[in-house]
Design the sequence.
C-alpha cells in the first residue's frame, strides 16, 4: 500500500460516515475563529505552570522549558507538513485528524508520570497548529480576495486574544487545582472543537482541485513566485519588529519603571492590544481596498510611530509613554497588515493554498526569530532606548519596502491580465 493510500485510509477510518453530515454552506466564520484560536492557545497557556511541572517530575527547569520553546519549533514543522497534506488529502480530514491527535496528546500530558512521556505528548499537541493554516485556507476558498482579507482580520482578533488570555487562565487553573487541569481543559476544548468541525466544516478542495504532485516540487513552485516572497517577507520583517520589541523592551526601559514587573507587563500588553485594534480595523475596511494598499497603510502606521518614538528618545524624553505609546502602532500596523499578507500568500496558487499557508507561517516565524537574534546582538552591547527604536524602525522599514514591492507585483500582474 502506498503512503498516499495509507493516509487516506486512516482519515477515512477516523471520519467514518462523517461525509453524510457535510453542510452545503460555507463554514461559519465563528467556527474558523474558534479553530484558529485553539491552534494558538496551547503555545503559552502552561507558562505559569512550568515551575510546578518541574517540581512534579523533579526535572531540570531548562528541560521542562522545552515544553514551550520546543513546542514552537514543532509547531513550525507541523505547519509546513500539514499545509501540504491539506492540498493533497483535503482540508476537512486533516482538521479532524489534527484535533483528534490533540485530544489524545492533551490526555497524555495530563496523565504523564515522567518528564520524557510529558514532552512526547506535548510535542504531539503541536498537531493542532495545522488548524491555523486550514482556517486561513477555508476563509480564502469561501470568499473573494478582499472579503477574505476582511474575514481574516476578524479571525486575527481571536488569534491575539488567545495567547493574551492563555497564561492568565493557565495560572488560575494551576493555583486553584493543579497544572494537569490545564491539559484536561485542552482535551475538553478539543472534543468540543472536534464535534463542531464534524458538523460545520465541509470540504472546499474537490478532487480535481487537489495537488497530486511531489511535495518538494510544490514548495519549489511557491518559492519561485515573486508574489509569495514579497508577502512572506513583509510578514517576516513585520513580526521581526514585534520580536525585537518583546526581547528588547525589558532591557531598554525596565529600569525606568522602577524595576516593577507589573508596570512593565502592563505597558508591553499595549502592543497586543494594538494588534487587536488593527485586526478589527482590517475586518471593517480591508474588503474595500486592494491588498497592496492595506499592506502599505499598515506598514506606514508602524514606521511613523517608531519614527516619532525615535525622535522623542533622541530628545531625552524619559516618560514610559514616550516609548510605549509609539510602540502601540507596531501592534496596530501588524493587525492591519497580517490579514492582507496572508490573503496574498494564499492567492499565489489556488491548488497549493494549504502548502503556501504552512510554508509562509514557518518562514515568518523562523525569519522573525532570526531578525530578533541579530538585533539582540546589538542590544546587548547598548540597551539604550534609541538603539532599540532604531532596530525596530529598520525592520519595519524593510517590511514597508516588501509591501511596496507586493503592491507593484500585484499591479504588474493585473496589467498583464488586462
Sequence:
Amino acid at each position: 500500500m502506498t503512503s498516499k493510500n495509507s493516509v487516506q485510509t486512516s482519515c477515512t477510518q477516523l471520519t467514518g460516515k462523517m461525509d453524510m453530515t457535510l453542510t452545503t454552506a460555507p463554514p461559519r466564520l465563528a467556527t474558523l475563529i474558534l479553530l484558529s484560536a485553539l491552534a494558538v492557545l496551547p503555545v503559552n497557556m502552561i507558562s505559569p505552570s512550568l515551575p510546578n511541572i518541574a517540581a512534579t517530575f523533579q526535572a531540570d527547569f531548562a528541560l521542562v522549558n522545552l515544553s514551550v520553546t520546543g513546542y514552537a519549533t514543532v509547531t513550525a514543522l507541523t505547519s509546513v507538513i500539514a499545509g501540504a497534506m491539506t492540498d493533497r488529502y483535503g482540508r476537512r480530514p486533516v482538521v479532524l485528524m489534527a484535533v483528534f491527535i490533540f485530544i489524545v496528546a492533551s490526555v497524555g500530558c495530563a496523565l504523564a508520570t515522567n518528564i520524557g512521556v510529558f514532552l512526547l505528548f506535548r510535542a504531539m499537541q503541536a498537531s493542532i497548529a495545522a488548524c491555523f493554516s486550514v482556517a486561513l485556507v477555508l476563509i480564502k476558498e469561501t470568499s473573494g480576495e478582499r472579503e477574505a482579507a476582511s474575514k481574516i482580520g476578524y479571525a486575527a482578533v481571536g488569534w491575539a486574544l488567545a495567547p493574551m488570555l492563555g497564561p492568565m487562565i493557565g495560572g488560575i487553573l494551576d493555583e486553584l487545582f493543579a497544572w494537569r487541569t490545564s491539559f484536561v481543559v485542552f482535551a475538553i476544548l478539543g472534543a468540543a472543537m472536534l464535534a463542531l468541525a464534524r458538523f460545520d466544516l465541509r470540504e472546499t478542495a474537490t478532487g480535481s482541485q487537489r495537488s497530486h504532485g511531489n511535495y518538494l516540487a510544490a514548495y519549489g513552485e511557491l518559492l519561485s513566485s515573486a508574489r509569495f516572497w514579497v508577502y512572506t517577507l513583509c510578514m517576516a520583517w513585520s513580526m521581526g519588529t514585534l520580536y525585537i520589541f518583546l526581547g528588547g523592551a525589558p532591557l531598554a526601559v525596565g529600569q525606568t519603571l522602577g524595576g516593577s514587573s507589573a508596570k512593565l507587563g502592563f505597558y508591553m500588553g499595549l502592543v497586543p492590544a494594538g494588534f487587536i485594534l488593527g485586526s478589527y480595523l482590517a475586518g471593517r475596511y480591508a474588503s474595500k481596498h486592494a491588498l497592496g494598499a492595506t499592506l502599505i497603510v499598515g506598514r506606514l502606521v508602524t514606521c511613523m510611530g517608531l519614527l516619532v518614538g525615535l525622535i522623542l528618545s533622541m530628545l531625552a524624553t524619559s516618560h514610559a509613554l514616550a516609548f510605549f505609546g509609539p510602540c502601540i502602532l507596531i501592534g496596530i500596523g501588524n493587525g492591519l497588515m497580517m490579514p492582507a499578507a496572508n490573503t496574498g500568500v494564499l492567492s499565489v496558487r489556488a491548488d497549493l493554498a494549504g502548502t503556501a499557508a504552512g510554508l509562509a507561517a514557518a518562514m515568518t516565524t523562523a525569519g522573525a526569530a532570526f531578525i530578533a537574534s541579530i538585533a539582540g546582538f546589538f542590544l546587548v552591547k547598548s540597551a539604550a532606548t534609541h538603539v532599540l527604536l532604531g532596530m525596530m524602525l529598520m525592520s519595519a522599514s524593510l517590511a514597508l519596502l516588501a509591501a511596496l514591492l507586493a503592491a507593484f507585483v500585484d499591479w504588474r500582474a493585473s496589467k498583464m491580465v488586462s
